[in-house]
Amino acid sequence: MLIAQYLTEEHRKCDGYYAEAEKAVLSGEWERAKELFAKFRDCTLLHFRKEEEVLFPEFEERTGIVMGPTQVMRHEHAQARELLQRLESALDKKDRDGFLSAGESLMILIQQHNMKEEQILYPMSDQNLEGEEMVQRMSELGEV
Amino acid sequence: MRGLQLLYLPPFSIVSRFFLTSALFGLLGALLGLYGTVADRFSLPALVHIYTLGFMAMTMLGALFQMLPVVAGAVIERSLLVATYTHISLVLGVLTFVTGLFSGEKYTLVTGTSLMFLALVPTASLMLFKLMRIESHTPTSGGMRYALLSLLIGVLLGSLEVFNLSGYANLSYSWLLKAHLTVMLFGWVGILVASVAFQVIEMFFVTPSYPRTYARLFPPAVLLSILVASLKDVWLLKVPLSVLFISFALITFSRLRDRRRKIPDPLISLWYVSMGFLIASSLLYPFAGGGATFLLFLFTFGSFAQSVIFAMMYRIIPFLVWIHLSNRGVPNAPTMHEVINPKRVWAHFYLHLTSVFLFLVPFFTGIKVLWLFCSLAYAVSFAFLFFNLSSGVLLYLRKAGWQGASPQ
Between 1.10.357.20, 3.40.50.170, 3.40.50.360, 1.20.120.520, what CATH number should domain A3-139 receive? Predict the structure, then answer.
């Protein structure tokens, strides 16, 4: 399996989990929203971990590009983590508007981040790295 | 290497200046319509161009400066300088060109045309050049090439029209006009909207994706159909173009209906309305030879573009405010709805629908005095757009200022 295919599928799965959590918030089912959001958060963070611990270091070592796309992706992961915390605190306060507002920013951040990864970073990774081995190593961290 | 350029986020001032100016041009267009009604001095070409160039092209070029690096990895070096040149020349060009169209004064018109040429051709060529250097294309980046190519062809045809009118050339004016109009509306605007939709509808609303082959073939098929439609002025040759855009609108409808994010969102409503207008204008297009049908075609196409542009602006500005402030390290940077409250966007959505209704009433009843209300409604709508967008920009400036940094 290609790295691009494996990680793109994870992006789509995470999107779906967010949509479910958002739906629960919208209907005021706070307990269910917390559960669904936790699933979305855990999957997103696991996906970030796979990239930060496996893909990015290997990419940097093979290509010699250290201060390039991987640094930008790490920076955007940090921004996403901050928004995840804001969403979590909105859930704790049952703040519907706060959740939806931060959620919208997070969705756009993640989507434009995903676009860049899917169109640039993953194809570059597939060109320069051993796809099967990378997917195997990332899978060992768990499944989204 | 292309990937290295991911770091690049164009300065916030680029998008904000293009978007704010375009709202002002929309307002100016509505006031021109109001003046036309009161003084009984109406110029359709002036009104059409203040809207298509001042509002539409202004927004679309501003958005391209922002989107090219993200969706295509195509970076324009010294973008602030290029954008400043484009923005200033476009503002001067639109003002002079529209004045020329309104007054019929030959030298103003030729000067305006030359300014428009200087505003659009270098920037569109540069953007196209950057996109052509990319090795592998997504349907979005691939489609943007066709849209920019259409813009260049459209500018060339439009310039020829003016030189023809001014007596510097002797070509078929009616053919030039129809070819210019077709390539600008369906090529430049239509392909660009579709190319962006291929990417953003799926990603932002979590929908099934557009069929990949369809998305890849759509832009070249549109360009080919424009060529077919321009061969001869018969309705049958215009049908392929209509079918293509109706199919695009229907696929977009089905994608939006099957979206996984079910949140009530004014932007989704704007997309629905926009696609409805696209279907209406595509149905009218083969029969829009002149008179009332032609006017209705222009109006429905304009409303399609206007609705989708509103949706785009209300998503881009609040997101950029957040991301630029977050990049500056502003703690708890305001998120989407804190920048522009959805209630205001809903209000604008209904104002937009009211304007459309107030156009259709005098159009079908022929009661002249009602055009006054129509122009007023559009003026209020664009003024409200300007107010909403500028409140977002001001929030950015305030927050960025608090950080002790000079705003970008």
Answer: 1.20.120.520
